[in-house]
């Protein structure tokens, strides 16, 4: 019986590992080695070199995120939802790009704000800007695509939040979204939400529990970023070596609105996450994708990623969910056009 239990446990562990980015990396590299051994070392070297060059950004991003978590800086975001509605929209859009929340933490955070009576307009401003940018994403985007693109994405995040916030404000004046919230969900993610009644402790090292929290966050986020970026650079290598450049240029290259709109529509189902996307887009840009289309792809994908959509769907009624997606996709296309012109 013990042997059967051990085998069963090992089988579950193996099945769990096969679902990880590490397993996908091994599978991809094995296939390249078997099917195209002549290019195996080139693909491996490309991915490894890109990962090493981004190492300093990964390290700084992990340290920053661990610091924000250990100090309890999430409470500063809650302060954006105090005061007049217009001010709340501006502050929510701004703080959305600074919030160090994972996709499951944002669910109880938003639920708490709506339950406390925060206006949907300000919450939507935060909700649209939050998936687009955070400190680690900003650094990783800068490492893969350069600081102009990273800063442009940060500006787009705030602008999209403002666009969505004021659009919801106008729609609510017309009588829509009087009762936007579903029944309060139960989150099984285990990480809980930020506590809104505490203050940040900037000198976290003076308290042992916070030091322990810093270490735990540093390790967990370091492993998280490393595995996803390793996968991203392996996929980028595949794009560079196996996807014809003229195909990319035909679909999302050149000027005009059409390639940008196509990139937004493709980005919705194809997007992985904000850590994988920048290296992939760097490869696509090298093969002919326009900068505007890259921005549109990134914005639409972040807003419509599975964690972001699940967070919205689990909390609000279908009409609010549909409005969220419409605002996100239309904002992605507009941001791509503007970024292309600039």
UniProtKB/TrEMBL annotation:
- The region annotated as signal peptide is none
Q: Which keywords describe this protein according to UniProt?
A: Cell membrane, Membrane, Transmembrane, Transmembrane helix
InterPro entries documented for this protein: DUF318, UPF0718
Q: Which GO cellular component terms, listed alphabetically, does the Swiss-Prot or TrEMBL entry include?
A: plasma membrane
Q: Under what name is this protein listed? A: Permease
Organism's domain of life? Answer: Bacteria
Instruction: Please report the record's description of how this protein sits within the membrane.
Output: Multi-pass membrane protein
Where does the UniProt annotation locate this protein? Cell membrane
Per the record, the similarity remark reads: Belongs to the UPF0718 family.
The answer to whether UniProt assigns keyword Transmembrane to this entry is yes
């Amino acid at each position: 019986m013990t042997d059967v239990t051990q085998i069963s446990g090992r089988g579950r562990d193996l099945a769990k590992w096969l679902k990880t980015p590490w397993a996908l990396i091994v599978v991809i590299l094995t296939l390249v080695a078997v099917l195209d051994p002549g290019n195996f070392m080139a693909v491996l070297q490309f991915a490894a070199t890109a990962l090493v060059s981004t190492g300093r950004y990964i390290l700084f991003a992990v340290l920053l995120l661990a610091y924000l978590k250990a100090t309890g800086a999430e409470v500063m975001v809650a302060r954006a939802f105090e005061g007049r509605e217009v001010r709340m929209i501006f502050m929510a859009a701004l703080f959305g790009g600074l919030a160090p929340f994972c996709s499951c933490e944002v669910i109880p955070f938003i639920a708490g704000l709506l339950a406390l009576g925060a206006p949907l307009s300000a919450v939507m401003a935060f909700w649209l800007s939050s998936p687009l940018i955070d400190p680690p994403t900003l650094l990783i985007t800068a490492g893969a695509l350069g600081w102009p693109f990273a800063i442009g994405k940060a500006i787009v995040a705030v602008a999209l939040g403002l666009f969505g916030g004021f659009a919801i404000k106008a729609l609510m004046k017309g009588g829509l979204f009087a009762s936007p919230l579903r029944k309060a969900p139960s989150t099984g993610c285990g990480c809980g939400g930020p506590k809104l009644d505490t203050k940040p402790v900037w000198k976290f090292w003076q308290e042992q529990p916070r030091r322990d929290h810093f270490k735990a966050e540093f390790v967990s986020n370091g492993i998280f970023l490393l595995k996803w970026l390793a996968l991203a650079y392996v996929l980028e290598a595949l794009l560079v070596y196996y996807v014809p450049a003229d195909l990319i240029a035909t679909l999302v290259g050149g000027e005009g609105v059409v390639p940008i709109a196509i990139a937004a529509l493709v980005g919705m189902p194809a997007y992985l996450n904000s850590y994988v996307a920048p290296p992939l887009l760097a490869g696509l840009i090298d093969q002919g994708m326009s900068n505007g289309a890259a921005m549109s792809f990134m914005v639409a994908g972040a807003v419509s990623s599975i964690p972001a959509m699940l967070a919205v769907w689990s909390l609000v009624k279908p009409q609010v969910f549909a409005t969220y997606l419409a605002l996100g996709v239309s904002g992605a296309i507009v941001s791509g056009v503007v970024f292309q012109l600039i």
